[in-house]
Amino acid sequence: MPGDDFIELPLERYQAYLRLLARMQLPPRLWAKIGPSDVVQQTLLEAHMAAGQYRGRSDGEWLAFLRQTLARNMADLARRYAADKRDVAREMDLSSVRLEQFAATADPTPSQEAVRNERLLRLADALARLPDDQRVAVELKHLQAWTVRQIADLTGKSETAVGGALYRGIRKLRELMEERP
Q1: How far is the C-alpha of 121 from the C-alpha of 2, rounded, in Å?
Q2: Per-residue pLDDT tens for 49-87?
Q3: What span, in angstroms and rounded, lies between the C-alpha atoms of 17 and 29?
Q4: How far is 110 from 3, CA to CA, in rounded Å?
Q5: What is the rounded distance in angstroms from the CA atom of residue 169 to the CA atom of residue 129?
Q6: What mean pLDDT is reported for the chain?
Q7: Does residue 100 carry a pLDDT above 60?
């Protein structure tokens, strides 16, 4: 496991974060075909098996290791779907840049990086606690820059309904982020 202070932290702590990254990397139309939860479970299993050889010393390095493992597993899944190979490979964004930019600071110190990493994990956990319609609307609008119209088209809801889900989702997300863990 990464460093002594990580040993007591269960890998499940990273589950919501990795699931969020998986959803961000997959276009929503493929969520039913390539389950984000399945690829996250595979990633956590591989991380558990590799923990004994892991030599990183910080939470940031551990998160980078998990992101790389997730990206590799996502690429493997894309290759498995031969019929959709071109579409999946083209549409999958194998970076977590938008999510990291959400919590980034300019040239962070180690303590700032630790705070940022904790904030990313809390954000992912808070998003996972939202009702599905609110979570999908917030993620697509604020993390993937979709328009309300695009979200409405995807979900089959009116723009007014999507706007309401966004409003309630952001309000609830703020409440959850303010809670102390």
Answers
A1: 17
A2: 887 777 767 777 888 888 888 888 887 777 776 445 444
A3: 20
A4: 15
A5: 10
A6: 77
A7: no
Whether the predicted model's global pTM rises above the 0.85 cut: no
Assign 9 a pLDDT band (cuts: 50, 70, 90): low
Full 3-state SS string of the chain: CCCHHHCCCCHHHHHHHHHHHHHHHCCHHHCCCCCHHHHHHHHHHHHHHHHHHCCCCCHHHHHHHHHHHHHHHHHHHHHHCHHHHHHHHHHCCCCCHHHHHHCCCCCCCHHHHHHHHHHHHHHHHHHHHCCHHHHHHHHHHHHCCCCHHHHHHHHCCCHHHHHHHHHHHHHHHHHHHHCCC
Distance CA 84, CA 140 (A): 22
The CA angle 39-45-47, to the nearest 5 degrees, is 105
**Tokens found for residue 17:** 């974060």
- Token pair listed for 114: 């630790």
The one-letter amino acid code at 79 reads R
Residues 120-137: tens digit of each pLDDT: 888 899 999 999 999 999
Encoding tokens for residue 67?
A: 């992101």
